Amino acid sequence: MMSDVSQEAGPRPAADFLSNSSKSWLKRYALLSTGSESLLQLAKYELTISLLQSWPGGLGIALRRLFYPFCLKSMGKNVTIGRNVSLRGTRQIALGKDTFLDDMVCIDARGKEADIRLGDNVLVARSTIIRSRGKELWIGDGTNIGSFCMVGTNGRLILGKDILIGGYTYLCAGGAHLFEDTDTPILYQDCPSRGGITVGDGAWLGARVTVLDGASVGRGTVVGAHSLVNTDLPEMSICFGTPAKVIRPRD
Q1: What is the rounded CA–CA span in Å between residue 18 and residue 184?
Q2: For the structural domain made of 73-177+190-249, what CATH number should be given?
Q3: Which one of 1, 91, 101, 248 has the fewest CB atoms closer than 10 angstroms to its CB?
């Protein structure tokens, strides 16, 4: 298990982010929406994503495919974006070619160092949240993420290629607040980082698996449904339990 521990300030909720008086409300909204204080970038965001995100049918997909590249960091060919997909911090989001985002997906890049990259042929199913608060969140080519998942990081979260992730799975690199200071709400206390999460190429995480900060899943490893991963799991293994343990090698 990764042992390096560093402390980072607790994540700021969107409401607190928008109510901070150090910048104008418009610039704060621009920063939250696009990742930049540029009002030009905000205008592009409002005229494209805000207007087109709910457009139904094939026409909506075609319009988003045509105009969204002007707002995102990069967007490959033949990207399919469903209805009511929420994109925040758009200048820090890169989508590879042939990627598919189903209806109601949320991709949220917040903070100057936030960097969300989805490779080619990535599929993100309905109502899944992908969120980075200031660190790298990279998803490799061909990875398939099921419905109602949470893939979030205050640290570094790296998913390899051709990974299968079942529905309702929770991967959280960071976000475990300290709570020893009884005079400060837990929400605003530091979040110790244990090095993030990595999942190797070709792994399979079953439904409702939870992977905690500092843990890794090896290449080609299968993690059974409802398991809790809080340590490193070796490659090419079948693992299950709370906490997850190796049941047997795949071969």
Answers
A1: 21
A2: 2.160.10.10
A3: 248
